[in-house]
Fold this protein.
Amino acid sequence: MVPYDFLAGRLKMNHQPGQLEIECNAAGAGFVVASTEYCVTSFKCGGFALGISTNHILFDGLSFKIFLENLASQAFDDKPLSIIPCNDRRLLAARSPPQVTFPHPELLKLQPPIGEEEEENPPMFDTKQEDLVFRIFTLTPNDINHLKAKANAGETNSTIKITGFNVVTAHVWRCKALSRNVKNNRDRESMVLYAVDIRSRLRPPLPASYCGNAVLSAYASAKCWELEDEPFSKVVGMVAEGSARMSDEYVRSAVDWGEVYKGCPNGEVLISSWWRLGFDEVVYPWGKPRYSCPVVCDMGRISYCCFLKLVGLVAMG
């Protein structure tokens, strides 16, 4: 735990700047062992399920994968760490003074609930019951190629990237937006958010081993009638433009926005790709995981959609 001492700390409100900070107080990491009588979780092969819950303040997907690699390396007779994490959070600090140079409709200004800012020792695990839904949809390579062909059929702008991620994101966005059973839905503005790794987009780039949250939400926005009536290629183009928008200056502006307003993502659906994170490629003493996926999480107004690696699985919560 020495290179990851912050994991044993606690989030604490620093009232002077009005923001949460990680207090490295060595309070300890939470560990829970659970058992059940249900046979659906009984693996006759001797395998087991391992679940880990962290806050995005601590890790994004890439830095968590590095953590798992380092964790696995310590199980091999105390071998050296696979990758030394870069824990310098100052590399993503806001500028002084903050300079918000772009509009950021993908972010929502929030104030903490009254009294919450005074809570010094919040519960480590929240056990309240939640009405959450988890669904898995399988997209085969042929399905994804069909979406690419559909996007190419109406595309006249050769600079737009028609990738697997862009076409699936456009498809999920359109389905989610048009499924809303609300009055005047066609005239409603719909926004999709999708996670973008900003390590290589900064100047200079962040180290590949940067440990922390180096992910921001790109966005695309349109009226529902546009999503329904316009060619699929145009919807894909909106998604591609949102990713291309994430330049060094835009990222710095978003970070400074967060310093000023202390907000959160603002959209209808948040999409994250686990295709290349490689959680299922970590080699433990007993071998690689057979399957890796997120669990259902409560994100309030926003539906969460995760693209998994196995034949294009799309998990929605």
The radius of gyration is 21 Å. The chain has one domain: 2-120+130-316. Confidence is low (pLDDT under 50) at residues 113-125. The first strand starts at residue 10 and ends at 14.
